[in-house]
Amino acid sequence: MRNIKLTLEYDGRRYQGWQKLGDSDKTIQEKIESILEKMTEEKIEIIGSGRTDAGAHARGQVANFKTESAMSLSDMHGYLNRYLPKDVAVKEIAEVPERFHSRYNAKSKQYSYYVWNDKVRSVFNHHHSYYHPMKLDLEKMQEACEKLVGTHDFLGFSSLRKSKKSTVRTIDSIAIEEENGMLKFTFVGEGFLYNMVRILVGTLLEIGDGTLDISVIDEVFDTKVRKTAGITVPAQGLFLDEVTYD
Amino acid sequence: MRNIKLTLEYDGRRYQGWQKLGDSDKTIQEKIESILEKMTEEKIEIIGSGRTDAGAHARGQVANFKTESAMSLSDMHGYLNRYLPKDVAVKEIAEVPERFHSRYNAKSKQYSYYVWNDKVRSVFNHHHSYYHPMKLDLEKMQEACEKLVGTHDFLGFSSLRKSKKSTVRTIDSIAIEEENGMLKFTFVGEGFLYNMVRILVGTLLEIGDGTLDISVIDEVFDTKVRKTAGITVPAQGLFLDEVTYD
Fold this sequence. Notes:
The structure is a homodimer of 246-residue chains. Chain A has 246 residues and is of the alpha+beta class. Chain A has helices at residues 28-40, 73-83, 138-148, 196-208, 216-223, and strands spanning 2-10, 47-48, 57-67, 88-96, 108-116, 130-131, 150-153, 168-179, 182-189, 238-244.
């Protein structure tokens, strides 16, 4: 059995997220599986590094699948990019050891989130960013980022109700960059809880525009109460940039 | 009579270009005029700095219109951005002297053209760039740009058959920048002939990938024969960035 690793780019706008829902074509996973099945004439199951939300995008989602096909990697690469829809592409393809597992072996992930912060809405970026016109105090937001980085129980910054599994996570870094009205938030960490990046961005924006005080962060860490934190910003601004393996 | 100057941004994908065609809603000019007429309850004609092609975009198209409305500029700005569709926005609004004319007074224009130059197509930029996967010799293309800059008869680099008016134009500069697989061509000049930017980009790409020799430029200047030059790249990669006035 060969084990093939794909690095994928997709525009999530038309999809119900990564994860298979049933027998539909509305998720990225199903879309890719159906083309792999035509290509290999085998039943294929692809394993993603993790789910991405309905409407969220990826520049570097990683997935792997097993096959007995003898097709060359470069032929597979050509086949997939020819038959995949315009909003999904295979950036890289590689053969990996049989034990490689996209989800279990992922060491770290990078997400970015885009916020258009200008008096006038953007005609070009409205499908790939969230529009927040209020003036933002970037210095205060940077200060808030420093409080978030590190190892904490992020339950209150997630959409999980309760969890039997640990909700302690480590964020390695959060960066905020601004260019011509577009704010880019970049998060790097070993893993993120459900909706965690989107709630962290919502909270940072509300700290930045004065709706919330910076003390909200310690409060959410203490109480673990979701509703104390900021809004969940929409998926359209979210990109899975990169998944790192050893 | 007040004379109002608008700086406009639009995603041209859904439109038949700037210029009014008749009684339809398919051009940017008609879209904006119909909203201005509701706003002012007057018959409005807007004058653009020039046409943009069907499918081409703008970051800084300039237009002006005359009105007797007493509405404040900031109310007009708010009204327009509320009622314009998501793919058209007014970036700036200003009151200008009555003799100001967007087309006659334009001193210089900047256009940019985007080319996605990578082995794998881009899922995010396919509506706003042209995909040219072949390897390009950027140095040779820069050399070609130096030959194009300056004052020449550009008839052979346009879609005009013949012209009673002069087809001599001056290009002040052409820049080619590359970032993560995206090439950006920037043209600055006092004015450009019909399809001239798109044919120049097509010619530069064909010089870059080896289809055409660099000598084609002098040949087209000499013979003025359109078919000797490169292809007309599609409008989807073209942006009118800026119009400059004294």
